[in-house]
Amino acid sequence: MKLNYKLQGKGQPVVFLHGVFGSLDNLNQLAGGLVSEYLTLQVDLRNHGQSPWSDQISYPLMAQDVADLCRELQLKDIILIGHSMGGKVAMQLSQVIPDLIQKIVVIDIAPVKYNGSPNAIILRSLMYCLNNQITDRKQIMAVMREAGITDAICLFLLKSYKNQHWLFNLNAINDQYANICDWQIIPANAPCLKPILFIRGGNSVYLAEKYQNTIYAQFPHAEIVTISGAGHNVHAEKTQEVLQLLQDWLNCSLSSG
């Protein structure tokens, strides 16, 4: 699948992978903070943004899409930065193109299967609007507010609503949502030995302490850093703190590795 992407800057490549319901623009602030020193590649994952739609969504498929793009662009020594679903794609890529990856940053997601997710409420609200042909932006926002979805998340979602049309493939996301929550544990005999940084929002449930042993089993060289006062979208809520952390960690891991 040919993915839509935005390529800027020059130097070592940094590939940015967004979360569910998002697009390549979601990580603009992080890419903008690194573009003076790196070649930044922002990607619309399948069924999102301007990339093609498919009935199938899974981490092997999404990772293969990105791997094909990286090979097409002849990238090497890649730094992967993925948020939420994009973080799982980044972790999957460690098994697909390990020879092309230098290090990985995962933002507020764990390499585990989630049996429940706050996104389920969002998905139900969006499907209600779709099935009931609610197309007015104010009415969509009212439905989401009634479900208890914050205005910040409502506004984030509506960035992908253009001309009464969702830029993400809502039906496919709904049908394949179990795959988005899923994760195939990396076998103990094939752990990823790349440097990997997990950035956790202190108020988020996605990267809870109970997952630490599972993280280290699959990624023995993992570092986990918590940004206090932030939720799941820690990169948007605490952009400067996350950028400083990224720059410090990348420089440190570069000099030490």
Polypeptide structure, described:
- This protein is of the alpha/beta class and 257 residues long.
- The chain has 2 domains: 5-113 and 185-256, Rossmann fold; 119-175, no CATH class.
- The chain contains 11 helices and 9 strands.
- The chain has helices at residues 28-34, 59-72, 85-96, 119-131, 137-146, 151-158, 170-175, 177-181, 212-218, 234-237, 239-256; strands at residues 5-9, 13-17, 39-43, 78-83, 101-107, 161-162, 165-166, 196-201, 222-227.
- The strands form 2 sheets. Strands 1-3-2-4-5-8-9 form a 7-stranded mixed sheet, with helices on both faces. Strands 6-7 form a two-stranded antiparallel sheet.
- β6 and β7 (165-166) form a beta hairpin.
- It is globular, with a radius of gyration of 18 Å.
- The chain starts with a strand and ends with a helix.
- The mean pLDDT is 95.
| CATH architecture descriptor text of the largest domain | 3-Layer(aba) Sandwich
Low-confidence stretches: none
Q: Helix content range of the residues, please?
A: 40-55%
State the CATH class of the largest domain: Alpha Beta
Please indicate the count of domains.
2
Task: Work out the strand percent.
Answer: 15-25%
- Tally of helical runs: 11
Strand adjacency order, main sheet: 1-3-2-4-5-8-9
* Corresponding CATH superfamily of the largest domain: Alpha/Beta hydrolase fold, catalytic domain
Q: Encode the helix/strand succession as letters.
A: EEHEHEHEHHHEEHHEHEHH
For the record, give the distance between the C-alpha atoms at the N and C termini, rounded to a whole number.
34 Å
CATH topology of the largest domain: Rossmann fold
Overall, the morphology is globular
State the secondary-structure class. Answer: alpha/beta
